[in-house]
Specification:
The protein contains 13 helices and 19 strands. Helix 2 packs across helix 7, helix 3 crosses helix 4 and helix 10 packs across helix 11. The termini are far apart. The strands form four sheets. Strands 4-3-6-7-8-9-10-14-13-12-11 form an eleven-stranded mixed beta sheet. It has a three-stranded antiparallel beta sheet with strand order 5-16-15. The longest helix is centred in the first third of the chain and has 22 residues. By secondary structure, it is an alpha/beta fold.
């Protein structure tokens, strides 16, 4: 992008997102605080959230009373560690009791987890979380050398994007400074369209699922195509395996940054230019608890997002594994460190015509189905899918199977081909 377009994009963003830019400035300053100051700052934010929760959330009001904890004077980590772990099943069964009676919940947005652990949940997202995510994204992109006004391309999510973009879509992408290319299905033809986008818009940042970025990189390398403008590739939502990192860094000739978070608890951690993963303790309280069956192994990750006053999630069990890491990073940022060699992993499914279908497509077919405790999509044959469910209570099996099948089969066939059959059990 030329300098005039970059400048105009930055001005447009300033006019629309002043709060995001203010937060970005705060985050940029705090990253250089000492670890001790950052942790003290986090304790005070946890205390504020606890006071709000005890005052306005029925579940936490009862919990604090039963434990005889006064949130205004609670100790860290002593009193905090007495609070009950919030499991995903508890979020589902106590959903209404976890909603704040304040105005925050009335202004919140209904949301759904990514579901990659096989346990989908619904929850409310405080509107402030979206500003936090945008500001944090700008911060971590700056770690790779991104500057305001430079283009970011997201290989993310579903939907349909007609490429090349029509004139006004092209202008909108330039002014916004970003472009989202849906990845729920892809093949060589779609990879060619993505390559044309890279050549045309010269993005400095790619944000993608690691498996998708790796497949695209293999295709680019096989064709002899060499992206020139990219300063960093940020990967999230899946485990970033070494083979993913190697092929992406080789083809894009830049560093891959591993970013960690979830829809319920965004902006948990991100890798810095030195290769260490920093925990954003100013935005989330992150705890590592032993697994009872393997106390010396990887730890269970509990996260408390400080900004979700609409439906506070105190000590929320993400279902992921990782370990804290001692020491300071050569980058001089004060955020504590962690390692995450284990975590979520998604397989891929193929359509009848050979296209790869990204698993998030299947996960979101079940959004809002609060009666489903756990699920698994299976593909044993090219022309059939199995959906295995565990439900909250005994159901009229045939009634629910027929209803669910009638709802999602047309969507499956639209994505995978009319010959696809579905079996729900």
């Amino acid at each position: 992008m030329n300098l005039a377009v970059k400048y105009l994009s930055s001005v447009m963003y300033y006019l629309r997102q002043k709060r995001v830019l203010q937060l970005e400035k705060e985050f940029s300053t705090r990253q250089w605080w000492s670890t001790e100051d950052l942790c003290r700052f986090g304790d005070e934010r946890a205390r504020s959230l606890a006071i709000h929760s005890a005052k306005t959330v029925p579940y936490y009001r009862e919990l604090f009373d039963s434990l005889n904890i006064d949130p205004t004077s609670m100790t860290f980590p002593g009193d905090w560690n007495r609070l009950t772990i919030l499991e995903k099943d508890m979020l589902r069964t106590k959903y209404n009791d976890l909603i704040s009676e304040s105005d925050h919940s009335r202004r919140a947005r209904p949301n759904h987890s990514g579901g990659s652990t096989g346990k989908p949940v619904s929850f409310l997202s405080d509107l402030r979380l979206y500003e936090i995510m945008a500001a944090n994204m700008r911060l971590i992109f700056s770690w790779a050398g991104w500057k305001p006004g430079e283009m970011v391309v997201h290989l993310w999510g579903g939907g349909d994007k007609k490429l090349p973009l029509p004139f006004w879509g092209h202008i909108k992408a330039l002014l916004n400074g970003y472009l989202v290319l849906p990845v729920y299905s892809y093949d060589e033809n779609i990879f060619m369209r993505w390559w044309e986008v890279l050549k045309k818009y010269q993005p400095t940042i790619i944000y993608a699922y690691p498996s998708v970025a790796a497949d695209f990189s293999k295709w680019l390398e096989g064709r002899g195509y060499e992206p020139k403008s990219v300063k960093g590739v940020f990967c999230s939502a899946e485990v970033l395996f070494p083979n993913h990192r190697n092929i992406i860094e080789r083809v894009f000739n830049c560093k891959v940054y591993n970013q960690y978070g979830s829809r319920e608890t965004p902006c948990v951690a991100c890798e810095c230019p030195e290769g260490n993963m920093h925990i954003f303790v100013d935005l989330n309280r992150v705890e590592f608890l032993d697994q009872p069956e393997n106390p010396s192994g990887p730890k269970r990750i509990m996260v408390t997002p400080y900004e979700n006053y609409a439906q506070p999630l105190l000590r929320y069990d993400l279902g992921d594994l990782g370990v804290p890491k001692d020491g300071l990073c050569p980058c001089d940022r004060g955020f504590p460190l962690m390692e995450m060699n284990l975590g979520r992993e998604n397989d891929h499914i193929r359509a009848l015509d050979g296209r790869i279908i990204y698993p998030s497509f299947f996960i979101h077919l079940l959004d809002g189905k609060k009666w489903i405790r756990r699920f698994q999509f299976q593909q044993f044959k090219p022309d059939s899918m199995d959906l295995v469910l565990e439900t909250d209570s005994p159901l009229n099996d045939q009634e629910y199977v027929d209803r669910l099948s009638a709802e999602i089969l047309p969507k499956l066939q639209s994505m995978m081909g009319l010959g696809i059959r579905l079996k729900v059990r």
